[in-house]
From TrEMBL:
It holds the Pfam family AHSA1. It comes from the Bacteria. Belongs to the AHA1 family. The lineage of its organism: Bacteria, Bacillati, Actinomycetota, Actinomycetes, Kitasatosporales. InterPro entries: ASHA1/2-like_C, START-like_dom_sf. It comes from Streptomyces albipurpureus. This is SRPBCC family protein. Gene3D superfamilies: 3.30.530.20.
Length: 155
């Protein structure tokens, strides 16, 4: 059965600033990797139908084996829909030999103006069963916290 994971956070910045961070290669490398990981974008094409390839490296791989290698996760992401400054929809495919990580996960980043700035709601659908739900939702929350720190510092 298809699984959906979620996370949300209010960021003290206007939607245009948050949207900009979602579509800027350098900022994405800073805020997207969750705690305990670093990230590097290998390919970048920020348009509908374009996308990026990100290599995520565990800072301590001893308790976190990667999907692509002992210390890394590699994900190919397609920009399925871009609606400035309201929504970014991504289709993500992990590089892995384990079939429990196979399939295309859709990540929708919905940006809604609020009195405090922008509510960012992330919905991940068709999450591969090999991805632990609690770990994934903690990773989403961590990336949202990183996004808030990044955007709020640059505003």
């Amino acid at each position: 059965m298809a699984r959906t994971d979620r996370g949300s956070r209010v960021i003290a910045a206007p939607p245009a600033s948050v949207y900009g961070a979602l579509l800027d290669r350098d900022s994405l490398e800073v805020w997207l990797p969750p705690d305990g990981m670093s990230g590097r974008v290998e390919h970048w094409d920020p348009r509908p139908g374009g996308g990026f390839r990100m290599v995520l490296t565990y800072l301590d791989a001893s308790d976190n084996p990667g999907k692509a290698s002992d210390a890394t996760d590699i994900v190919d992401v397609e920009f399925a829909d871009l609606v400035p400054p309201e929504r970014v929809v991504q289709r993500a495919v992990f590089e892995a030999d384990d079939p429990s990580f196979a399939g295309t996960m859709t990540m929708t980043w919905q940006l809604t103006p609020t009195d405090g700035g922008t509510e960012v709601a992330v919905t991940a659908t068709d999450v591969p069963p090999g991805i632990d739900q609690a770990d994934h939702e903690a990773g989403i929350a961590s990336s949202l916290a990183n996004l808030a720190l990044y955007v709020e510092a640059t505003n």
